[in-house]
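Service request form, structural biology core

Requester: graduate student, group of Dr. S.
Request type: structure prediction, single chain
Budget code: on file
Notes: please return the result as structure tokens.

Sequence provided:
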Amino acid sequence: MATPSKRKLLLLLFALGFIIAFIQVGLLTIAFHKLGLSPTAGYTLLITSLAGSLINLPLFRLRSERDESLPPPPTLFPLTQGILSPHHTLIAINVGGCLIPVAFSLYLLIYTEVTLLESLIAALFVSVISYGFSRPIHGIGIGMPILVAPLAAALIALAINPESAPPLAYISGTMGVLIGADILRLKNIQQMGPPFAAIGGAGTFDGVFLTGIVAVLLA
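Core staff response, request fulfilled:
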């Protein structure tokens, strides 16, 4: 879960630099190959995810429990001030950071040798780890060391199904972060009381897409 802030722009710039470095050494191509994707399909997924990270679809509102004595968290959406309420948090879902990774995980589940049971078990473990290592950060949202989830996803995938470890690592890594560091942290977001928060937000690559790619490379 992440709230809009200047940190989002920094994360996006970091992600772009990270992607360029990956392309230069061919690591993304290796990751796509492990997932059974052609370079064209892989880069299409990458570009679509990056573009989708700029789109948030509103879902529902939560009553804010924020201490009114604290300064309100910042927002990067001044044009939505008439829509956002100081007493509620608008919960949205990020297209690039949530919907696309979930859809691709379903694709991998259908078209690879990974079973639903394996995916559920692996995602459960990564969710618990993501929840344990994630922390609410005032003015930013939920933060977590970026390598924790991919390392956990890769090791768990190798332990459960070594032959199909790459797709299982991607599924468990992305779903684990979304569940453990986003959905299960909604109560923390409610207590911080930002005007807006997006599941899978703060850029695509900070906790979801990057987790999936790194997990695949490690598996």
